[in-house]
Design a protein that fits this description.
The protein is an alpha+beta fold. Helix content is about 65%, strand content about 15%. Helix 2 runs antiparallel to helix 3. Belongs to the GrpE family.
Length: about 190
């Protein structure tokens, strides 16, 4: 067995000497490989560091973005609330006037003015009322809460609006609750 190992070592040395005739060449190639390996490790470390910085920056961006969005929401709410304060003032004036005089006509007129003021404010902010009466029932805009037999109207026509529906900048806020006509066949 030892003889076989000695022969294998001799063959290996001959092959190494044929591939690398001198030790200097082997050492030189090994040195180049080590330097190249070291450069690749440094390059990989640089990429990892860059990636970690990008990740941290992105996390900070997400936090800032969330905080800015929250502040904008609060700011928007604050603006709407400021615009509602005069409406509340007018409602209180109408109530106080009724308590002093017990005359309901000015109170009703005051309530109508307050309602108009609220509607104008909502319209200014992009909220619009959905018109329904006399139109065909649309399940995307309406919620049928009652039906009524009708000889005058075709089935599926809205007879009465029980609760107004609203949209905000084209998106449904609340469907209109309606009474819809039906025929005897349904």
């Amino acid at each position: 067995m030892t003889k076989k190992i000695e022969i294998a070592d001799e063959v290996l040395e001959e092959n190494v000497e044929e591939s690398y005739p001198n030790q200097e060449k082997i050492d030189d190639d090994l040195l180049k490989l080590k330097e190249s390996f070291k450069e690749k490790i440094e390059e990989a470390a640089s990429y990892l560091d860059h990636l970690q910085r990008l990740k941290a920056e992105f996390e900070n961006y997400k936090k800032r973005s969330f905080e800015e969005k929250t502040k904008l929401k609060e700011s928007g709410k604050e603006e709407i609330l400021k615009q509602l304060l005069p409406v509340i003032d007018n409602m209180e004036k109408a109530i106080n006037h009724y308590n002093k005089s017990h005359d309901s006509k000015p109170v009703i007129k005051g309530i109508e003015l307050v309602c108009k003021q609220i509607q104008d404010l909502l319209k200014k902010e992009g909220v619009s009322k959905i018109d329904s009466v006399g139109k065909e029932f649309n399940p995307l805009l309406h919620e049928a809460v009652m039906t009524e037999l009708s000889d005058t109207y075709n089935p599926g026509i809205i007879l009465e609006e029980l609760e107004s529906g609203y949209s905000f900048n084209g998106r449904l806020l609340r469907p209109t609750r309606v009474k819809v006509s039906t025929s005897e066949e349904h």
